[in-house]
Specification:
The complex is a heterotrimer. Chain B is an alpha+beta fold. Helices cover about 30% and strands about 10% of the residues of chain B. Helices cover about 35% and strands about 15% of the residues of chain C. Classes of the chains: A mainly alpha, B alpha+beta, C alpha/beta.
Chain lengths: ~350, ~170, ~475
Amino acid sequence: MQFPTSCSPFTPSNNTVQRMMLYVIAALIPAIGTLFWFFGFSILIQLFLASCTAILAESLCLYARKRSVLPSLLDGSALLTAFLIAMAIPSIAPWWVVVTGTLFSILIAKHAYGGLGYNPFNPAMVGYVFLLISFPLQMTIWQSPLLFLDLNSALTVIFLEPTSIDGLSSATTLDYTKTQLHLGQSINSIQQHAIFGFIADKNKEFINLAYLIGGLFLLKQKIIHWAIPTAVILGIMLPASITYSMDSSIYPSPLFHLASGATLCAAFFIATDPVTASSGTKGHLIYGFLIGSLIYCIRTWGGYPDAVAFAVLLANLTAPTIDYYLKGKKTIAPLAKEYTRNNGSNLEVGALASPDPVRD
Amino acid sequence: MLFLCLVFALLGLLLGFAHKKLKIKNDPLVEQINNLLPQTQCGQCNYIGCRPYAEAIAKNEADINQCPPNGEAGIIALANLLGKEAKPLNPEFGEQKAPAVAFIIEQDCIGCVKCIPPCPVDAILGAAKQMHTVIASECTGCELCISPCPVDCIIMRPIEKTANHWQWTQDV
Amino acid sequence: MFNFFWRKKKSTFTGGIILDGHKQVTKINTPQLPKELIYPLFLTSDRYTKACVKVGDYVKKGQVIAIADSLLSTPIHAASSGIISSIEKRLIAHPSGLADDCIILQTDGLDSALEAEPCLDYRQQSRDFLRKKIHQAGIVGLGGAAFPTAKKLSGSPAIHTLIINAAECEPYISCDESLAIASAKEIIQGSLIIQHILQASLCIIAIEDSKPDAYLALLFAAKETDIKIQKVPSIYPTGGEKQLIQVLSGEQIPPQKLVFEYGYICQNIATSFAVYQAVLLGIPLTERVITVTGAGIKQAQNIQAKIGTPIKDLVQFCQGYTEHAQQLIMGGPMMGIALASDEIAVIKASNCLLIEPIKASAIQPCIRCGDCAKVCPSELLPQQLYWYSRSQQWDNCTDYNLADCIECGCCDVVCPSKIPLVQSFRIAKSEISQQQKQAEQAALAKKRFENQQQRKLRIEQEKAVLLEKRKATIEKMKAAAAQRKLN
C-alpha cells in the first residue's frame, strides 16, 4: 500500500487564529452588555454597522488581492476590528462615521500593508484616530449615561441626525475634568458634578469593570499574556500615583485614571494585539509600560481628553525597535559541524562528537 | 586658544590612533572575488582558472557573467560585492549544468596519460600504459579531461541522488 | 554520597507542551516469521555498511551479513536463517523516500541460530572487550536516532552520570514501557553493564510519571542495586537529552555543547536491554519491540519484531488497516518520518509505526503571537528563525542558534496559523550544511589548483635554471675552444 509523505509533526493542534479571535470577541460580551445597559440600542446598531462594513470590505480586499476569501474572512480578525471601533466611538455618532472608520481600518490600515499579520499599526486604532482627526465634532459628543435609547430613537439618532434631543449628550469625566482644571477648579469640586459616579463616569466605571472581567477571562484562557495588561496599568498608575501624592487637588487619583476613558479596554484588548505588539515578556513589559505612561502623559498634559489610540499607535511604532534591541543579544557560535537528524522519540542528540582518545 | 589647540591635537591623535587600531582588515579585492567563484577551474570563462578570472574581473577586463558553474546566485553575489548591476549569464561561455564528476571507463582506457596534465586539481591517477582513474571526491567536474582522450573513454556522471546527501525541500 | 550532582529540587526545562498520551500498553506479542527480511546497507546520515555475503549464501540467525568499517557504523546480523536471494535497490525507511541497496534474505522457516557465546561475569572482562562486544552485536541507540552505542560509550571525558532514558515522551509509543514491564530485571542488568563500562558513579533511570506500572517494575528490579529510578513530569519533550538532564539535575547544558562534555550520557532503555542480551547472553541485536498503533490499524499492539521485517507483515499481524489508514509514520507523531510504502522494512531505529488519517489545515499568515517561543524547549525564537529561513538569510539562522533546534515540533503544534516551522528549519539546516560542504569542496579545489600552479612554476623555473646552466657550460666550452685555437 502506498502513502503520501509529509514532514513531521503529524499532530494536529486545536489552536487556530479563528479560535483566538473568537475568544477575544467572546470576552467583549460583558462590555457590550454593560454598554447596552447604559446606552440602549445605539451600541447594537453601531456594532451591526461596523460588522457589515468590515466583512464587506474584507471580502472585497481579499478578492481584489486574489486571496481565498472564505478562510481569511472566517479568521474573525475583521470582525474583531469592527467590534473594537464600534465600541470605541461615541454610540450616538452618525452612521457614516462608523462606516468610514471601519472602511479606513480594513482598507488602509490592514490590507494596504498586506493583510492580517503584516499590519504595523493596530487597524482599529488607526480607524479611530482617522475619525477623531477628520470628524472632531461627531467624535466628541458622547451619549449621556442617563439616557437609554430604544430601538426607534437609536435608529433616528444614528441615521437621521436630528439637530438636538434633550439630554442626549453629555461630557465625559476626562473631558470635563480637563476643561475645569483649566478654569482653575480643584479636583474635589469637579467631582461633585452629576456625571461622576463612584470613581469616574457613572457608566465608564462599570464598562471598564466589564472590560476587566473579559480581560481576566482571556488571561485564564491564555489567549493574551499577563505582561502587556499589567505593564499598561502600571504605566498609568505609577505616574498617576506620584503626581496624585504630590498634589491631589490638581491631579486626579490613579483609580480615576483606571476607571475612566478606555483604559482597561486598551490594556486587555487593544495593546494585546500580538501582530502590532513587541514580543517576549521583556518586550511586552516595555511596550505595555510605554502605552500606559503615554496615555497618562497625553491625558494630563496633551490636547486630547483621552489618549488610548494615540498611545497605542506611538507604541506600535516603537515595537520593532524594542524587538530589535531585545533580540540583539544573540550568541554567535559556530554551527556545530555535525548534528544528528533525530527521527525518534528519545532524542539521542549530541552523541556525535569528535573522536576523543579513549580514556582507559 | 592654547587649550583649544591642545584639544584639537589630542583629538587628531585619537582619530589617527583609532584609524590604525580599528582598521577593517580587508582581503585584497582579487581574493574576495576568488572566494565567490566556484573553484571548478574549468576555464569556461576563457581564463585558465578561477584566480586568473578573478584578477581579470578586479582589473575590469572581464565581465561578471562569464562563469557558467557559478550560476545566477554567483553572479548576484559578485554584483553585490562589486556594486555592479547583476545580469544574466552570458551564453557565449556555456550553460549551467547539474553537478557531475568525470569517470573513466576503465576497460577502454589505453593508458596514454594525455588526460593527466589538463586536470587543474590533479584528480586523475595513472601512469603510461596503466589504467587511469578519477578521484571522484576531488574532481570539480570541469570537463577539461574529456577532449584530450583519444579513445573517448571519459564520461561525465551526474552526482547520484542517494539518501546520505539528500536534503529536505519544500515539497516533501 | 555520590548524590553530589543530584539536586533534590524538582526542576523542569523551559517550554514544552502537554500532549494526549494515546498509549495502549499491551503485552509484547511475537508474529510469525516473515518470508523475506530486508536489510538496507545505509544506516543514518553518512554511515554505510558493507555486505559480506553473496547472493545464494546460506546464513544462520545471528550471522553477520554486513560489516562495519568503523566505530561509526555497526554490523548487521541476519534475524533468521535462510538464503540471501538478492542484493538490490529497495525503498528504505528514510524521509527521502529513495531506494538504496538492500540485502534480501529469504527465510527458510527453520530459524536455526548460530551458537551464542554467553559471558558469565562481565566484571571479569576488560571494558574495551565489553565495548567491542557491544559493537559486534550491532547495537545502536534504539530511541530513534540509531547512533552506535559502542561509539557513545567510548572516547568520552569522565562520565559521572549515566541516564537511562525511559521517558518515552512522544504520544502513541509504548514499546519502552511494555519492555520495562516485561523485562525490568534484564534492563537493570544492562544498565549496570553500561555503568561499569563508563565507570559512572551514578545511574538514573528516568521514567515519566504517567507510567506507574513500569515505574514499579523497575523499582522492584533495581531493589538491590544503586540504580535510581526517577519519575519525571510528563511534558513533551522530557525525553530530549538536554531537557532530561535539566529535569534530573537542574543543570542546563548550553547551546552548541554536547552533553557528554558535561559528564552525562543518555541511553535508551531498549538499548540497555540489547546490551544485556549482547554481553551476558551473546545474542546480537536482531529483534526489537515496536509499537504498531493509530486509528488506521485494527488492533494496536506492541510487537517483538525481527529487524528487517516488511511493515506490511506487521500490519497483517495487527489484523490490517482500517478505513482511516491515510499515512504511515515511523516513529512518533511529533518527530517521526512519513514513509511512502508499507513494503519498506523496519530498521533498528523503528520504535513505532503509526497509521493515522491525515488532518491537513491551511496555512495562515503569522500573527506574531509568540506561542512558539514560549514552548520551545531549546529557548529559540522560532518565529524569527522562520523569517530568516524563509528569506534564506542563513547567516542569521546560524546566529540565532538554528543548529540547536531538536525538531521536536512543539512550535508547529501550538502555532495558530499552522505554519510548518519544523519543515522550514529542516530545509534551512540542510541548506546550511550543503553550503558548508560546497565551501569545503571549493577550498580543496582551490588549494589543489594553487599547488599545481606552483608546481608548474617551479618546474618552469628549474627548467630555466637548467637551460641557463647548459648555456653557461656551452659558453665556457666555446670560450675554451677559442682559447685553444688561439694557442
